[in-house]
Amino acid sequence: MCRLLAYVGSPVLVADIVLWPARSIIKQSYDAKERKEDGSMHGHLSLGSLNGDGFGIGWYSDSIVAKATDPTPCVFTSVTPAWNNENLGRLSCKIVSPLVFAHVRAAMPGMPVSEQNCHPFQWGRYLFMHNGMVGGFMRIRRALLATLSDAAYDTVQSFHSDSAICFSIFLHHLPSLSVVQTPQALLQAMEATINTVLASQRAAGVTEVSLLNFVVSDGSTMLATRFIAGSEDEAPASLYYAEGSAFQRSPHAAASDGTAAGASDAYDGRGFDARQEPCSPTVNAATARHTSITGEGEYTLMYGAVGTRVVLVASEPITSSAGDWVAVPRNTVLIVSHNKGGCLNLLSSPLGACCAKARREEVARCLEAATGAAEVASRSWSLQRPPRGEAEPAQEGKPGGELPSGFGRADSTPGSLWLDGKAKVVAGEEQRLSGHSGPVLCLALCGERLFSSSTDLTIKVWDMAGGQCLATLTGHNKPVQSLWVAREHLYSTAGRYLRVWNIAEPSFPCVRVLQLPRNGGALGALAVDANNHIYVAGQDSVVRGFRPESCAADTGGVNGCLKVATGFECWRLGSLEFVRVLRGHRGSILTLFAFNEARLLLSGGRDNLIRCWDMETLVCRRTLSGHKNDIMSIAGLAPAAGPTASVAAAGGDGSPLGRSSSMERSAALFFVSASMDGTVRLWTGQSWACLQIFTAAAVHAPMPFLSAAVSARYLAAGSPDGQVRIWGTAEELLAAPAGLLPCATGHGAHSAAADQPVSSDASLRDDCWRGAKFLASLLESLGAEIKLSRPIEDKHPIVLGRLGRNPDRPTICFYGHYDVQPAMEREWLTHPWEVAAVNGYLYGRGTSDNKGPILGFVYAVKEMQEAVGGELAFNVAFVFEGEEENGSKGFKEAVQTNLHWFEGTQLIVISNTLWVGEQVPCLTYGMRGMISASIEVKGPQRDLHSGNEGGVFNEPLNDLTKVLASLVDGSNRICIPGFLDRVRPNTLAPALARLDNSAEFSLSGYRDALGVPQLVRAASTSELLRARWCEPALSVVDVRLGSDDDNGGEIDPFYRFGPTRFSVIPHAVVGNVSVRFVPDQDAEELITALRQHVDTVFAGLGSSNTVTVRVKSVGDWWEADPESRLFKMAERAVAREWGRAPLFVREGGTMPVASALEKMLGAPALLVPLGQASDACHLANERISRTNLVRGKNVIRNLLEEIAAV
């Protein structure tokens, strides 16, 4: 077989990769002296023979200037044996490159041996090499060539080589040969290349085995495949990969103690040196002869503190340490791409038939996120003192206020400093612990003991009270990558080994050693649950569980992790059942920490952000910013749980989707984050604010932090200089957080048992979350699948539910919203956040809009389930949003991203409108659209005094008043030209046919309900309803002083209502208008007409001020056909329950979600109101009749039964 090697990473001397390693591919090829035997060939051709059919190396320039002007690589090939080629020796001792390909060829019998056929092949910026063969190549060669475009056909370098033609097929599938492609495009081209070969083989009836180990690069991204087709029994050609911080010659002195595997990331105070220093013998071209022998030596992968900087892919391992290498799984592709700071991303993805669409989408999203991390700026954090003369506000108990004396104070602290006016800064540690000779990778605190591990292969045990090292634990021969303390044991992982230490004994003996299988790579993650079950994950992207009494894997492992953790996958403990992928970070996730009781998970990554995940709903609740560089470690403490809380296993009850909600407990949580920006931050879960920032004592450059641990008394952080820095923490701060910080749930005596899901109030986010989680639990009680989606970071989640997925049955989608309006009106007669039953009505905010109707629909489904005792005759899709009262931001994105949850939808049911009166049920068949716009007039640069400057310039408020007055006349008819065009006639006819004979609506009753002395355009009921429902309307709804550009658009209450307001001329004013439009009007045409009218009127004023029209939101009109089959079903459902036919009504209001869902799901919507006209939605004393709620539920059930019977 051929042998190949690819290197990506810090620039390296080619001889260190190709020539001198004792297990280089040249040595392997020479020692093997055979190819794969082929029994189909005759005579001596079937036997293996010496691999002397040529070789080649390819490399890219290390010069930044050269890369910019000429990105093409260089290739050297020869048909002479590589182990005896003097030119190879000369070149490899002079070339330094960050990306190297090397290949030793074993030609197929009958294939010409020439430099033209030697690998790697090069075209443009691409290098390509192949280990294996295309089965039946001579039979499908013409078919393969026929698939090529003219441009790709011209790239074929040898028509006798299956590898050369496969390279041209790859180039053919690229979007362009002249433009740099994304990793996603390269992956798609590789998948298409393999599919092209397989399709040609199927068409020709080829059954021979194909071994398609391809490696390709454009100088930045590299792909390597291990693929076999044609046989399920035969093994694919071997392929391995290894990753580390450097690839270097082993020091001569390191032979027995394993110290050669120490740190390669030397920290000199200025930063990590990403460039690898050659440690090879000094040679030059004159002495290059025989250097493959004289320069031979052992090489090793080095493991440093900060990420992967070197990746090697080889047909066989080229180092003696088996633990360095991971076997690439069968039919898998590796994608190596660059990240920020000289680090590399490594991702693995399945190929071929096993690569389902969902998996391909997952890989694409990971590649996109990994690529995005390279765009995140990183820098060191710098101290910022308050401006001279600015006093530090002392706000006791609030973030940024005064903390208890003694908390984190160091003698070297130059006073309290400020960051963004919020977090206190402590510069200088109280204590240092020195002893490690390499970067401190991991820390674990347990009581008065601190455990630290380093790249020096040791674990040190420290007495925190005395600051003394109690013991140094040895035994690992690789850097210790993780520590975990659980009761009387310390768990540690390094390389392929997991060690368990008894920390209850003074000698800290190692009591157990677990070893991973060969070719599985190094362990990188560790967790231990409450039952002492051990969970580990390593380079091979497999999660394994171990029973405490056994050294064997409990579950056999879970495969399928993506190597680059741009998102992370969740499994249930015990069974390791896959649950869901959580994503949101850009770039790799570097650290995770779980608060078990609060069901919270914290993640930190290369995008400088911390994300806080709710593990009940598996949705991100918060994103915390502030760090300026990679977040290397997160550790936490829940004070009520004691000092060992920080080492409890995630989901200790075995269920990451547990039902007990402990969101309030986040108020008592504290955690710390350590970053490469040189800071450790202390955060509170009460307000998700940063309370304090810790930095190292003054050095000539900021000291990065790699690890952190926190207890009730100490905060520890590990540094690249091998030292552990310690700060004290006040016990009272963590023991009694409720006394130090204000409780988030204090909204009065009644709030303890009630939620206030007001979407427009940021302080009530947790209440909205509880509302979403309540609905999720309610749907789960029906047996529905659930998902919480939140496309926009700071918006509340959309609850998705699905009950049944039978494609032969209709699917009904029900929409509702769980958020509500505020309830600040003084006119409330009952507590707005508690349901009060008074005279047959249920009072409380949200009873009618929209919690009551949601419960009516859910319980209608529940009753039908109980009635049939099994599956329903239809599927149900639920979608409940939490931002309907706040603009519905993110709703469309959530639906479009999750369209598979709505597959087969034939009807959308919405119950978010009202009856026209009090006694007769209604069905809504039309609603107006709405345009929310602002008209802003700007004048002087600042406010002016009306006594000093009044009357000498054009005042903005006077101008705005004249413009607003021009919009409508005295009868509220719109005066904007073209605004009444394209109004569909006769849209009121279906309503009038039934309302004319009903006492439900009268002009006098309507006038009294509004509380106005007189109605305009009210000569008859039909005229008023036409104006209210079927014609455009324009209303001025607000006039605000100031500009939308002032203070980020926020209104300053004192500015608006201060005591000097009557003597101030505002420099800018904004008038907000609400435009309602009807079928068949177009919103864009109306917006254009509004702008033209405003500009025309304003120009006529001759004012020196400026005017601007801004559109804030647009919602389309909606209409249903009362004669349609589904509408008739709804009519029968209402009549069956109420004993009378419903009224048909339109509404003057707007519900954009109706038309939006119709367009997205391709199904009609029905609006079935449950509430009466007097329900006072959005107003004080909101209510819903108990009768209407119960009978409305029955109407929904009748409708569902009608649909099921079709």
Notable characteristics:
1206 residues; alpha+beta; 7-stranded antiparallel β-sheet; 25 helices
Task: Summarize the structure in words.
By secondary structure, the chain is of the alpha+beta class. It has 25 helices and 61 strands. The chain has a 7-stranded antiparallel β-sheet. Strands 5, 6, 7, 8, 9, 15 and 16 form a 7-stranded antiparallel β-sheet that branches. WD repeats lie at residues 433-472, 582-623.
Number of helices: 25
What radius of gyration results from the CA coordinates?
36 Å
Strand content: 25-35%
| Average pLDDT taken over every residue | 81
Describe the strand arrangement of the main beta sheet, using strand numbers: 3-2-4-1-13-10-14
Catalogue the unreliable spans: 252-266, 268-287, 386-421, 551-566, 639-667, 731-753, 1051-1059
SS content category: alpha+beta
Outline the biggest β-sheet.
7 strands, antiparallel
Helix content: 10-25%
Distance between the termini: 65 Å
The total of beta strands comes to 61
**Any idea what the shape is?**
globular
Task: Itemize the secondary structure elements and their pairings.
Layout: E1 3-13, H1 14-18, H2 25-32, E2 55-59, H3 64-69, E3 74-78, H4 86-92, E4 96-104, E5 121-123, E6 126-133, H5 137-146, H6 150-153, H7 162-172, H8 183-204, E7 210-217, E8 222-226, E9 228-229, E10 240-244, E11 246-249, H9 291-294, E12 299-302, E13 310-314, E14 326-327, E15 332-338, E16 344-350, H10 357-373, E17 417-419, E18 423-427, E19 431-434, E20 440-446, E21 449-454, E22 459-463, E23 468-473, E24 482-486, E25 489-494, E26 497-502, E27 510-515, E28 523-528, E29 534-538, E30 543-546, E31 567-572, E32 577-583, E33 589-595, E34 600-605, E35 610-614, E36 619-624, E37 631-637, E38 670-675, E39 680-684, E40 689-695, E41 707-710, E42 714-718, E43 723-728, H11 731-735, H12 737-740, H13 765-781, E44 785-789, E45 798-803, E46 811-817, E47 836-838, E48 841-843, H14 847-868, E49 875-881, H15 891-897, E50 905-910, E51 922-927, E52 929-938, E53 944-945, H16 946-949, H17 956-965, H18 989-995, H19 1003-1010, H20 1021-1030, E54 1033-1041, H21 1053-1057, E55 1064-1065, E56 1068-1077, H22 1083-1101, E57 1106-1115, E58 1118-1119, ...
Parallel strand pairs: 18-40, 46-49, 46-50, 50-60, 51-59
Antiparallel strand pairs: 1-4, 1-13, 2-3, 2-4, 5-6, 6-7, 7-8, 7-9, 8-15, 10-13, 10-14, 11-12, 15-16, 17-18, 19-43, 20-21, 21-22, 22-23, 24-25, 25-26, 26-27, 28-29, 29-30, 31-32, 33-34, 34-35, 35-36, 37-38, 38-39, 39-40, 41-42, 42-43, 44-45, 45-49, 47-48, 48-61, 51-58, 52-56, 52-57, 53-55, ...
Helix pairs in contact: 5-7, 5-8, 7-8, 14-25, 23-25
